[in-house]
């Protein structure tokens, strides 16, 4: 994948993420903060972004969203395909909820 294509893909992902995050925050702020793994301060900033600011942020060459897959147990639970899939996903949600939320530095 060439650099321009990769940058285009990152920009699209960033834009989709920012738009989804804003919609989630408008619909159910508490659930969005939990699902996105962000703090109140970050939620406030994201909610207050104008369309122009969202586009500028999306145009960054770094990924704005953060995956919570830095824990083998979490990955194993989320990828569970057995009969206990519901329970595994519940355990993954509990594990993820115990993680500290992101804050603006």
Short précis:
The chain is mainly alpha-helical and 105 residues long. It contains 6 helices and no strands. Its main location: cytoplasm.
Radius of gyration (Å): 16 Å
Number of domains: 2
Helix content: 55-70%
User: What's the CATH superfamily of the largest domain, by name?
Assistant: Flagellar transcriptional activator FlhD
CATH topology grouping of the largest domain: Flagellar transcriptional activator fold
Structural class: mainly alpha
Give the helix tally: 6
CATH domain class name of the largest domain: Mainly Alpha
Share of residues in strands: under 5%
The average pLDDT value, as a whole number, equals 81
Number of strands: 0
> What gap, in angstroms, lies between the N and C termini?
33 Å
Low-confidence region ranges:
none
Biggest sheet record? none
| Shape by Cα distribution | globular
CATH architecture of the largest domain: Orthogonal Bundle
Subunit structure: Homodimer; disulfide-linked. Forms a heterohexamer composed of two FlhC and four FlhD subunits. Each FlhC binds a FlhD dimer, forming a heterotrimer, and a hexamer assembles by dimerization of two heterotrimers.
InterPro entries: Flagellar_FlhD (IPR023559), FlhD_sf (IPR036194)
Subcellular location: Cytoplasm
Keywords: Activator, Bacterial flagellum biogenesis, Cell projection, Cilium, Cytoplasm, Disulfide bond, DNA-binding, Flagellum, Transcription, Transcription regulation
Describe this structure in words.
- This protein has helices at about 5-25, 30-35, 40-50, 50-60, 70-80, 85-95.
- With about 100 residues, the protein is mainly alpha-helical.
- The protein has 2 domains: about 1-65, Flagellar transcriptional activator FlhD (Flagellar transcriptional activator fold, Orthogonal Bundle); about 70-100, no CATH class.
- The longest helix is centred in the first third of the chain and has 25 residues, at about 5-25.
- It starts with a helix and ends in an 8-residue tail after the last helix.
- Keywords: Activator, Bacterial flagellum biogenesis, Cell projection, Cilium, Cytoplasm, Disulfide bond, DNA-binding, Flagellum, Transcription, Transcription regulation.
- It is found in: Cytoplasm.
- This is Flagellar transcriptional regulator FlhD.
- Pfam families: FlhD (PF05247).
């Amino acid at each position: 994948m060439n650099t321009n294509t990769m940058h285009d893909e990152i920009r699209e992902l960033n834009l989709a993420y920012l738009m989804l995050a804003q919609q989630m925050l408008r619909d159910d702020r508490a659930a969005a903060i939990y699902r996105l793994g962000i703090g109140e301060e970050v939620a406030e900033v994201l909610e207050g972004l104008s369309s122009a600011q969202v586009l500028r942020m999306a145009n960054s060459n770094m990924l704005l969203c953060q995956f919570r897959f830095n824990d083998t147990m979490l990955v194993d639970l989320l990828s569970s395909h057995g009969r206990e899939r519901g329970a595994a996903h519940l355990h993954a949600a509990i594990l993820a909820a115990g993680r500290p939320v992101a804050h603006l530095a």
